[in-house]
Design goal:
It is a single chain. With 228 residues, this protein is of the alpha/beta class. It contains five helices and seven strands. The radius of gyration is 20 Å and the shape is globular.
Length: 228
């Protein structure tokens, strides 16, 4: 059984314009990416049960930097720049896209990708490109259909089925779930998925603890023998 992290303990570490300004690769990182109007900031805040953890702007596309958050020792969340919608100069948009692509391609500790899509406008071209890239890199993907409270239950379920069927064409490990920051729909499923991605950190820690304990026990035994 995977350990369950307390996401309420999540706190901000740093912001960086590119991966060269991020701390060295350590532990496991899970990245959140999505179009600038997909509700990414609100989704992370709901996950962590903190209203002000990630600043929510009324103007989509204000996340211009790679933002790093610590959930637990060796477990990090990365909030990537939004794409595809922001009303900003083209050169600025290109700069954001470059830093996003660079992180996804070169950050070795990235072990899972959460792609957020407005349930009313899922699987746009850039969304699909991002998911195809992740699959090519054998990176597991959780696609969240955000703002699902905007649709009635029947329409919500129909859209979920439609996107899940389309996701089969990506191949690889791609799961699709409903999500609502406002109503809390899908939050528990998101936490469980992240727990499973972070699990190797605790597995390694437990193994090292066992090794240390055995070494200490052996040392104590040697000391007892030498004192006799």
């Amino acid at each position: 059984m995977n350990p369950s992290l307390n996401y309420r303990n999540t706190h901000f570490i740093t912001s960086a314009p590119d991966i060269r300004h991020l701390p060295p690769d350590t532990g496991i990182e899970v990245a959140f990416a999505g179009r600038s109007n997909a509700g990414k900031s609100s989704s992370i805040n709901r996950l962590c049960d903190q209203k002000g953890l990630v600043k929510v702007s009324k103007t989509p596309g204000r996340t211009q930097l790679i933002n790093l958050f610590k959930v637990d020792e060796g477990c990090h969340i990365v909030d990537l720049p939004g794409y595809g919608f922001a009303q900003v100069p083209l050169e600025m948009k290109k700069k954001w896209q470059k830093s996003l692509a660079e992180y996804l391609q070169k950050r070795e500790q990235l072990k899972g990708l959460v792609v957020l899509m407005d349930i009313r406008h899922p699987l746009r071209d850039l969304d699909q490109q991002l998911i195809f890239w992740a699959v090519d890199c054998n990176l597991p993907v959780l696609a969240l259909l955000t703002k699902c409270d905007k649709l009635k239950s029947g329409a919500r379920k129909a859209e979920l089925t439609k996107v899940r069927e389309a996701a089969v064409d990506f191949g690889g490990n791609v799961e699709v779930e409903l999500y609502s920051s406002l109503k809390g729909i899908g939050v528990d499923k998101l936490r469980k998925k992240l727990d499973s991605w972070y699990f190797p950190v605790f597995e390694t820690t437990d193994a090292q603890t066992t090794i240390d304990a055995e070494e200490n026990e052996a040392a104590s035994s040697d000391d007892s023998t030498s004192n006799q």
